[in-house]
Amino acid sequence: MEQLIFPDRKRLPYGMMNFALIRREDYYYVDKTHFIPLIEQADRFFFFIRPRRFGKSLTLNLLQHYYDMYTRDKFDELFGDLYIGKHPTPERNSYLVLYLNFSGITGELNDYRKGLDAHCSITFENFCQKYIDLLPQETLEGLRAVNGAVEQIDYLYQICERAGQKIYLFIDEYDHFTNAILSNAESLHRYTDETHGEGYLRAFFNKVKAGTYSSIERCFITGVSPVTMDDLTSGFNIGTNYSLSPEFNQMMGFTEEEVHEMLTYYSTTSPFSHTVDELIEIMKPWYDNYCFAQECYGETTMYNSNMVLYFVKNYIMRGKVPKNMIESNIRIDYEKLRMLIRKDKEFAHDASIIQTLVSQGYITGDLKDGFPAVSITNPDNFISLLYYFGMLTISGTYKGKTKLTIPNIVVQEQLYTYLLNTYNEAELSFSSYEKNELASALAYDGDWQTYFGYIADCLKRYASQRDKQKGEYFVHGFTLAMTAQNRFYRPISEQDTQAGYVDIFLCPMLEIYSDMKHSYIVELKYAKYKDPEGRVEELRQEAIAQANRYADTEIVRRAVGTTQLHKIVVVYKGMDMPVCEEI
Asked: What whole-number distance in Å separates Cα of residue 70 and Cα of residue 434?
């Protein structure tokens, strides 16, 4: 098929962070500029946390272009047809803009100072060159005469004040090094030294704080976790944390309405093989369902903007749903969060938070808007960290606490993979070749015996004493995690379904593998080792009734499509599987 070329179709700004380029080259842009007046009305030192790939850097870049004195003559070109172009605020184009991006800082904590100095030295030098006409003649020379980021920022805000200029300071990924720190104890000690007392990073933020009494009139700081800010600013408050504020819930990421509008636009310029609503239905379980403010629960959920752009870009290029619904960069991001699993293991043996979450489908806690790194193993803090990293989303309240669930399949897949890695600590590797062969036989040949036999086998082999004590949670979590590795299905677990009580519905991914032949309901029951033999038969009967009832629901009937539905009953007694049969 000849590649269809549409010269007038807007390109998608996938992976782009340069607002001016997006606007100049007429890329598709979701207008978020109506948040600018809200930011101006908020406190002047604005602190905002969102998960990775949610559009933080692009938002910062947009604000820089809006507030920079030197982009005044480009205002119409950049903003003319956007909300803020029609309703500009008095502060537009009235600042010297200083942008620091800590994600580019190299070096471990022990030589962090070197990295910070190098980044700031280049950035400050460029700042002075850029605004040379607005600052005293000797500015550059004076800057070069002082050493290190701490002294240089001190110098910079003082010279700007002398010149009667005001600074808008942006810091992107201020907590770039937090992940490294949380991953091992030695780093944590070093980090504590850096952020407390006389530490260099602490000194840098102290200077920023001092600058806010002078020419630094506004700050906008972003990151992925509130940990570092809490450590850096204990004793004084540099900014207001707006991460959980309802009025900014939709500032980053896309609402369903925005996704709908984007798909509608592309459906008129590209050959679509689905309707817009069908595409939303495919994307929703994968990318949607983030809620960043308790008050917004039940109103609007947010899609991960990066994942949406990835999907739409691939869809309009090929006219079909991408085989891989998760882009590889996201997987790499989650790799960086492996330390979460290490931390999770430090909890008491019956309280692995991730395992509880997977088994019961939700977890409750109190979201904290800041906590020090050393107390990360307090369950509420750990749950808050998972939430800020985008691993959990707000799902209402339960018994007076915030109820949090896994937002979507992208995150679910990562969490299940983590869980398998924790079971897999003994480096007994699950052979991926064997797993793929079994997965394919399950989907195309209806061979479920070998598949569930393999899971039971692994489960028995890898179960530690600790896992055995957890019993049902372990068996359920492990089975779910294993089935989630099967690319032909998405497992829907009992908590997601409204009717009765099913354990796992292996929902066939027909939009990707349209020639699949089989789908499954797996009713999973668990009896303790010490239970009498008759208990197994009781559970088997219960499971049969539940599987039949569930097979009859609308959700299952719709999802199985052209596949043959098998109802499988599995009963474990301890770590053994005496029952595995089709009804």
From this structure: 60
For residue 12, what is the DSSP state? P
CA distance 255 to 249: 10
Task: Report DSSP state, residue 337.
Answer: G
In degrees to the nearest 10, what's the CA dihedral of 41, 43, 45, 49? -80
Residues 6+ apart with CB under 8 A from 13: 22, 27, 28, 29, 58, 309
Nearest to 225 by CA among 103, 387, 410, 43: 387
CA distance 423 to 463: 7
Structural contact between residues 70 and 263, judged by C-beta atoms closer than 8 angstroms:
no
Which is nearest to 55 in space by CA: 297, 532, 390? 390
For 305-338, give one letter per residue: b (16+ CB within 10 A) or e.
Answer: bbbbbbbbbbbbeeeebbeebbbeebeebbeebe
Q: What is the pLDDT of residues 391-403, one digit of tens each?
A: 899 998 888 889 9
CA–CA separation, 583 and 568 (whole Å):
6
Q: Which two three-digit tokens encode residue 555? A: 């959700």
- 53-75 exposure pattern, b = at least 16 Cβ within 10 A, e = fewer: bbbbbbbbbbbbbbbbbebeebb
Distance between CA atoms of residues 433 and 200, nearest Å: 49
Distance CA 511, CA 279 (A): 10
| Average pLDDT along the chain | 85
pLDDT, tens digit (0-9, with 9 covering 90-100), for 218-248:
999 998 887 776 676 654 566 788 999 999 9
CA 312/CA 79 separation, integer angstroms = 25
Edge-to-edge strand list for the sheet holding 96-101: 96-101, 167-172, 216-223, 45-49, 240-241
**Six-digit token string for 194:** 């850096």
Alpha helices in 104-247 (DSSP H): 112-130, 139-145, 148-162, 178-183, 185-195, 200-211, 227-233
DSSP 531: S
Query: In terms of DSSP H, where are the helices of 463-501?
Result: 465-470, 472-484
pLDDT at 461 over 90: no
Cβ atoms of 390 and 407 within 8 Å: the answer is: yes
